Amino acid sequence: MIVFIEKLNSEVLRSIERIESRDTDVLKKSL
């Protein structure tokens, strides 16, 4: 169960990083 939660957390973190990097890319293009 704990392993499942850790896996889920890492997936969420990865997706958040992806979204943030995409956002910064959009910001750079708009500047």
Automatic annotation (TrEMBL):
Protein name: RteC protein
Source taxonomy: Bacteria, Pseudomonadati, Bacteroidota, Bacteroidia, Bacteroidales
